[in-house]
Amino acid sequence: QVQLQESGPGLVKPSQTLSLTCTVSGGSITTNYYCWSWIRQPPGKGLEWMGAIAYDGNTYYSPSLKSHTSISRDTSKNQFSLQLNSVTPEDTAVYYCARSEGLGSLNYWGQGTQVTVSS
Fold it and tell me: Which residue stretches of the chain have pLDDT < 50?
């Protein structure tokens, strides 16, 4: 059973960089043909897919976030990470990591981590 766990600071100041890590257990992030995504949900709004890194290291981003989002991985730790630059209070959300087969349905999710952007 694959398990995902998000970690990172719960409070980030405006204009700073938000950095989160997802630790995966029960399966390798390099296994064909899985993709590993970041999704967020701002308060009172729906889920927003931010981007993903595939088993082969290729990355995919939401067009609306691509300019200030970066997803990377550390295969030795079986982790993948999100960096969101120049954050504003509108980036306040619960952030989730999740797995899909290809860019299909997200079938395994982490529990989510609250990130608040505030001075």
Answer: none
